[in-house]
């Protein structure tokens, strides 16, 4: 993954989180508004992202999670266009409780960048990354009233497996196949 989003405007890229986009990330973060959460960024309530030092600690935590070799590994990517942060997407590699609850995938697009196909594009990129680490399927969970996210998941072959009651309300759980190198499904059981 590239370390900065220096492509010309209009061309999205997935990059690893970087402190170089501190101001751009804050612009995106402000757009979500208070109290809202940004799926795909790995942002915890305890993260101090308002100060440059706290932001640097948070980005380092994301990098460490991406480098983890265990069940807690999570690859974080930012969706950028030029020097603008448009969203985030995360690939959780494990099979632990967090993945069982929230799925292998988490993503969010800032409100002003929605309805442009960015989530669909980013999900296709993450599916390719999942293939390279040997995954044959992924799970994704979205709020039952998030029809845009449901359509994005379904565009990638997502099949509704369950409707669950969560502390945030009803949620749909999907299974997304990860095609093998030759377009067939990968080895089952991962």
What does this structure look like?
- With 190 residues, the protein is of the alpha+beta class.
- The model is unreliable at 1-7 and 184-190 (pLDDT under 50).
- It has 5 helices and 7 strands.
Observed structural traits:
190 residues, 4-stranded antiparallel β-sheet, 3-stranded antiparallel β-sheet, 7 strands, globular, disordered N terminus
Mind telling me the C-alpha Rg?
16 Å
- Counting DSSP H or I runs of 4 or more residues, the number of helices is 5
Spatial strand arrangement across the major sheet: 1-2-3-4
Fraction of residues in H or I helices: 25-40%
Shape, please? globular
Mean of pLDDT? 85
Beta-strand percentage range:
25-35%
Q: In angstroms, what separates the terminal alpha carbons?
A: 24 Å
- The number of strands is 7
Order of helix and strand elements from N to C terminus? EHHEEHEHEHEE
Contiguous uncertain segments of 5+ residues: 1-7, 184-190
**Based on helices, strands and strand pairing, what is the structural class?**
alpha+beta
Major sheet details: 4 strands, antiparallel
Summarize the structure.
30% of the residues lie in helices and 26% in strands. With 190 residues, it is α+β, with helices and mostly antiparallel strands.
Helix and strand layout, with pairings?
Layout (H helix, E strand, L loop, with lengths): L11 E4 L6 H11 L19 H16 L6 E8 L2 E9 L4 H6 L2 E5 L8 H15 L4 E7 L3 H9 L3 E8 L2 E9 L13
Antiparallel strand pairs: 1-2, 2-3, 3-4, 5-7, 6-7
């Amino acid at each position: 993954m590239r370390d900065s989003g220096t492509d010309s405007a209009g061309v999205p890229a997935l990059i690893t989180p970087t402190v170089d986009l501190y101001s751009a990330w804050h612009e995106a973060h402000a757009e979500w508004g208070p109290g809202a959460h940004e799926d795909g960024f790995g942002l915890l309530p305890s993260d101090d992202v308002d100060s440059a030092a706290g932001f640097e600690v948070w980005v380092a935590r994301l990098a460490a999670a991406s480098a983890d070799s265990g069940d807690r590994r999570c690859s974080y990517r930012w969706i950028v266009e030029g020097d603008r942060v448009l969203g985030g997407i995360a690939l959780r590699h494990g099979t632990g409780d967090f993945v069982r609850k929230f799925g292998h995938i988490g993503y969010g697009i800032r409100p002003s960048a929605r309805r442009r196909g960015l989530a669909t594009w980013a999900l296709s990129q993450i599916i390719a990354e999942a293939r390279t680490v040997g995954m044959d399927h992924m799970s994704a969970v979205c709020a039952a009233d998030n029809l845009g996210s449901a359509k994005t998941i379904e565009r990638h072959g997502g099949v509704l497996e369950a409707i669950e009651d969560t502390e945030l309300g009803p949620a749909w759980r999907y299974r997304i196949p990860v095609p093998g190198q030759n377009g067939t499904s990968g080895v089952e059981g991962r």
